[in-house]
Structures are given as C-alpha cells and as structure tokens.
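Sequence, please.
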C-alpha cells in the first residue's frame, strides 16, 4: 500500500545552461561583488543569497564558471574554518552559555552533546580532506575564542 520511496519533493535548479538575457552583470563584475561582500564579513552562503535577492543573479556558477567559495579561495578571502563547522561551533558556545545559567536544562545539555559530536565528526572529515590542519581539535575554550 505505501512505498518506501521518499518522493521527488523540493525545488530544482532550472535546466537551462545559458546565461539569461536579463542578467546585467559580467563575470568580472560578479567576482568584484563577491570580493567586496566577503570583505564586509559575509560568508559564501550569505553572498549567494545576497546576489540572488538584491542583485538578481540567478546562478554565480553559470555566470562566472565557478562557485562562490572557489572565487573566495582564489581571492584569498575564504575563512580558515569552514562555514558549516563554524556555525556548529557558534551553536555549541551559545548552548554552553545557556547551560551555565540553567544547569538543570537537560534537553539543552543533550543538544550540546549532539552539537559537540557533530563538530568532532565534521572536524575529522575536514582534517582528512586537508581543509583543517592535522592537529586541529575541538575544545570548549578554543570554541569561545573562535566565536569572539
């Protein structure tokens, strides 16, 4: 009666491989925009959203031929710690601060444990892929320093 398949939900990228005629930007302009937004402190996913919503750029990869993170890496603007790992570290620091004030909040304690285990797994992956140096370890003290 019910299948085990999950279905085909979610949004899909457009099939066209050509730059739409209504896009006003050239590849050099896109690269300059990405560099200026990165210098303002935005990360790669925020830059993609800003370019889409404020500048009307449907796909950076279609226009420039590279991803936002690749362009940031070429410009030397890519952060030392990957974006997804940094967001998990920020979550763990926020939960640490909450647990210092509310020591009986056991669901928050469990959330903190899960966040730390995700950080350690992801860090192990990034060390293996050489995006982090081989001696990188997560500790709550260094996490607080990284977030500040």
């Amino acid at each position: 009666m019910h299948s085990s398949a999950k279905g085909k939900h979610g949004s899909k990228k457009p099939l066209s491989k050509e730059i739409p005629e209504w896009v006003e930007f050239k590849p050099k302009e896109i690269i300059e925009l990405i560099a200026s937004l990165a210098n303002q402190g935005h990360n790669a996913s925020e830059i993609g959203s800003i370019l889409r919503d404020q500048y009307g750029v449907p796909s950076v990869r279609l226009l420039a031929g590279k991803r936002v993170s690749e362009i940031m890496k070429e410009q030397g603007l890519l952060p030392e710690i990957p974006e997804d790992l940094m967001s998990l570290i920020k979550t763990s620091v926020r939960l640490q601060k909450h647990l210092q004030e509310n020591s009986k909040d056991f669901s928050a304690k469990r959330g903190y444990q899960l966040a730390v285990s995700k950080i350690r797994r992801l860090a192990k992956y990034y060390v293996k892929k050489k995006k982090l140096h081989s001696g990188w370890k997560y500790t709550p003290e260094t996490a607080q320093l990284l977030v500040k």
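The mean pLDDT is 90.
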